[in-house]
Amino acid sequence: MSSKTKIVVLHMKEIIYTVIFAVLAIVLILLLIFMFLPGQKNEPLAETQYIPGVYTSTVTLNNTALEVEVTVDETHINSIRFSNIDETVTAMYPLIQPAIEDIAEQIYKKQTLEDIEYSSENPYTDQIIIGAIDDALKKAVTTK
What is the pLDDT of residues 9-18, one digit of tens each? Predict the structure, then answer.
């Protein structure tokens, strides 16, 4: 009697690991598909209407009040700057002026405060400045 029967022994631990890795591989593939498939783009929002003028908001850094000045026309943000910054503030906070310039450049291009990229060196300062710019822009928005 020559039989060619083979016995395969599977350990439960191997089966569990295989199932877990297969599920992770499927999840990874689905994630990559959803990330890189071209999706529907959001339609651009209607342009925000502003009351033309210069609007200010205050930022307090270590008992020093800085005024963020935002200049707008009817549909665009034209200028963002500190209106009362002096040498002592720039000496104590050397990254504050480059931070507002970087943020202002992004806002000029996008004309919105959405999707602003924060600097890796000073993200909290960027958040404070954007908050002050948002406060100034709220004063400028027309209500219809």
Answer: 778 888 999 9
